[in-house]
Write a structure and sequence with these properties.
- This protein has 108 residues and is α/β, with parallel strands linked by helices.
- The protein has helices spanning 10-18, 34-49, 67-70, 97-105; strands spanning 5-8, 24-29, 55-60, 78-83, 86-92.
- The chain has one domain: Glutaredoxin.
- A 5-stranded mixed β-sheet has the order 1-3-2-4-5.
Length: 108
Amino acid sequence: MSSHIHAISDASFENEVIESNIPVIVDFWAQWCGPCKALAPIIEDVASQYTDKVKFVKLDVDHNPSTPPKFGVRGIPTLILFKEGQVVATQVGLINKAELAKFIDNHI
């Protein structure tokens, strides 16, 4: 991970996402997922522009099987934006930098 994005787990999800005082984007991903790997540098780039406005975290669906079904994650990559502990937007699939910025700007 980078200084702008860090890994979370089923155990830390509540504290890192639901109880966060700023909006959080959760990247549901897996090591074997090609589109997830393609999305990673895009998220990194965008995360560096939203420092202090949005927290970016990654949840590996293979190692953390309890959280994804709670939020209807069926395919990856899935990005879910949480604000004040609630889901406000979901994006499934690979998107480009402009689409990711628009996804964030429309919901924060």
